[in-house]
Structures are given as structure tokens and as C-alpha cells.
């Protein structure tokens, strides 16, 4: 039934203007405004993401958007230079001082949040 549809994902933010500034100016994404309460993130490959304003927004407690990068540490350094703070995890998902998880299993990954508190990541693509 949906095998040939071009699906897209979306999630809420509490402030559409702050979200636009963050995704466009900090992360460098092309952002299209869809009225007063929605944004479309133009992701390479055509897999756009819809962001919508929600007055009673609650941040996601899981990663909502992953950015594959060739070098996670370089991406983390660039984002830190732009004022991004990376999340720190302990336990099974240990992160180093920069917030980078370098596990024996799985990719090198680092998590950060958008202004609405939604969790995003940079993932080292091999």
C-alpha cells in the first residue's frame, strides 16, 4: 500500500523561529517555512523532515534525527565551536569528555539537542 510513497518524518518544537535559526544558521540546513507554525528541513537525498510548533511540546527522550558524517570527532569539534553542548552518558553508553561514544559495537556517535530539547546526533558513517 505505501511501497511507492515518499514518506517523511516530523516532530514538534516549542518555538518555530528558534528552530529555524538553529537548523539553518547553526546546522547549515536549508529550511523552508510552511506558514507560521511549520518548517521543512531540506535533507540531502530528498528525505525532508517536518517540524511543527506545539504549545505543549515535550522534548523527545530518544534520538529524532541522525546526521551521518565521515568524521564524528571533526563534526563534534565544529559544533562545539558554534556553541553546541553534547550530552554526556554513562553506563552502557559511555561518552568521553566531548560527548562522543566510541563503543566496541556500533558506530561512533555523539548526541546533542535542538533548542526545543529534541535529541539529535552525529554518527560516523563508514
UniProtKB/TrEMBL annotation:
InterPro entries: Glyas_Bleomycin-R_OHBP_Dase, Glyas_Fos-R_dOase_dom, VOC_core
Record-annotated VOC domain positions: 5-125
Top-rank lineage group of the source organism: Bacteria
Pfam family, one: Glyoxalase
Protein name per its UniProtKB record: Glyoxalase-like domain-containing protein
